[in-house]
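Could someone model S-adenosylmethionine with this protein?
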Amino acid sequence: MAALDGLPPLRDVIQRHGLDARKALGQNFLLDLNLTQKIARTAGPLEGVTVFEVGPGPGGLTRAILALGAKKVIAVERDARCLPALAEVADHYPGRLEVIEGDALKTDFEALAPEGPVRIIANLPYNVGTQLLVNWLLPKQWPPFWESLTLMFQKEVGQRIVAREDDNHYGRLGVLCGWRTSAHMAFDVPPQAFTPPPKVTSSVVHLTPNPQPLPCDVEKLERVTQAAFGQRRKMLRQSVKSLGGEALLAKAGIDPQRRAETLSVEEFVTLANCL
Ligand code: SAM
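Reply:
Sure, complex below.
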């Protein structure tokens, strides 16, 4: 497909800069510009929006975000080998791409956020994706500095993000996401869409902050979900024993014979608030 932006095809960019994919960095590149545009479009109209991207790699998704009109992209990339390729993209879009070489897990995105709307769009390295998501969901200040997250995960992680009660994928991540956000699966991406192909199907998930999540101390919520899902097949009176067991459940008005996966997000919040 001809590039929207007149820049060279990504396959050439990868070859010219010697960007052979490194497994340890979770490098599975997207070379199909139709697909990178589809991901960027999932974040909605980008005019006037600053986008944070994690792991731009050779720049396929970055280019789509810029071509779709984002005011600016601030991208954090750990692999210094990608910087010359990204510098070419930055030259093509003067003043609109800032690349920070570093580890996204150690980056204070909130401190980098400029005035105006901020969205996060990324084809995440699988080994750090869940931790990054959790970091973006934990700030005490809510609504957060971002207005949406459009993120690629392994499908199984995506299913855990959107899962609610009575779903096999429901667990700690589903409760946290359900409490603070509205999350939905946008679409699946087959392994062959990536170079090199990963072993599993991926999914793009879109999350927007709930403007007023039920009041709850996030640490307490983590404690109850950790205990309850730590022994998910057991009845709650057993799994939350160390937190108060039957007395805690009685205070929260929850039947002690139920199991963790039957509790709604709201019931977990009630339980946490009774701690
Ligand atoms: N965005 C590109 C694309 O869609 O083709 C590359 C995506 S690839 C799945 C993940 C990218 O994240 C790689 O470029 C990798 O070097 C980078 N990366 C891995 N760990 C990182 C970390 N801790 N912080 C920032 N970038 C990281």
